[in-house]
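Closing statement on the cytidine-5'-triphosphate sub-project.
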Amino acid sequence: MKKVITYGSFDLFHFGHQRLLERAKKLGDYLIVGITSDDYDRVRGKINVAQSLGERIASVKATGLADMIIIEEYDGQKIDDIKKYNVDVFTIGSDWKGKFDYLGNYCKVVYLDRTEGISSSKIRSEKRSTKLGLVGDSYSFFEKFIKESKHVNGLDITSIYPEKSETTDDLVLKLKLNAYKSYDEMLKNVDAVYVKSDYNKRVNYIKKALKNGKNVLCESPICLNVEKCRELFKLAENNNCVLMEAIRTAYTTAYKRLTLLAEIGKLGKVLSIEATCTNMRRNDPNRLASLYEWGPNALLPVFQILGTNYKSKTFITHNVSGEVKGDAFTKVNFLYEHATASITVAEGAKSEGDLVISGTKAYIYVPAPWWKTEYFELRYEDPAYNRRYFYQLDGEGIRYELVEFLQAVKDGKDVPRIEHDTTMAMCKIMEDFKANKDVVKI
Ligand code: CTP
């Protein structure tokens, strides 16, 4: 019996896939189809795959052409599979010509002509693009953001509303976007906005966008008052819009996986979380905002793992004397019924930016900078049980955040990676700090 093997993502199964499988089948008597796992697609940079592995398997199965379906999970697996299943012919489309010649050491390699004019990427991007407008003056960040958005199918960053009136046109020109002098005018020409403005102005930008039926991705904290935050979510719901908080860490694989390990009890009972975020590179060294700038990020694991129902909290904060305004260093200590947590954030002090989640059986250690990590460890008393976890992170998580935002916009509902309760608890922290409640100055 002549065995043939082929591989692919087979996302949004199309005629090109069908033809490829038909011809592959004819090369032998038994066809094995390897379908890429969701994780493997991410690792190889395919972040836009629209269907889940289960859906993609179902479409290949439905053709009736595959005698066996396997999952492709790692680089080099093709060699293992060919040996394991005694494969005679490896085949793939001609877009891969030359790339798999090395498999010729194990079996015959056949490149089949690719069907012209169709691909999964094309189908994905033909769906009407979501037009996004930027709000704010963080031009160097916007440059990075625009670059990252090129990895996301179906998103078109078209416009910008620069906040400062004194903004030099050169900076805006560099971004090659339509620059609007009026926010209302920009709203008429976009489907969604990304707000990275001054903290105090975010609420108004969000409100206006939502009232006009536009979706919002906003830097955190989205506002500095818990009641206003609640109103914003209500407004989003009433207008069938998405309001999503842009804490990139929440959308990275490493962070998502470590919270799952805590949830399934790998650490035993979680008793303590310590998160530190510091970064002294500021645009304006005379205005520090350690808690506003870093608080949401550092609070994320605390509220997502221990919940938002803490019994008490204390801020310990330090303002450097002299010209500099704002908090240079702030620590927030939380007391829960059966746990404790502490976040340390600083724009005017330096520390080790790591994350430690301690439990009754083990702890998780995420090295600095933990908020954009690709790696963490699960550590036990007996090091023989320790586990190391690696997950690739491209573009600091911006592209994953955008993919999830677009998915929520497309589905017409937000299934928040950051629960609304968590966001509101963050706003409450900002509100109390601003009002000097539970604050000790050092
Ligand atoms: N294929 C083909 N003709 C096409 C598209 C794909 O013959 N028009 C083949 C590929 O060469 C590969 C298999 O179908 O052997 C699975 O390809 P896959 O990468 O899943 O499909 P694409 O449409 O190329 O996906 P994408 O646009 O996401 O790269």
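The mean pLDDT is 93. With this model delivered, the sub-project is considered complete and its resources will be redirected to Aim 3.
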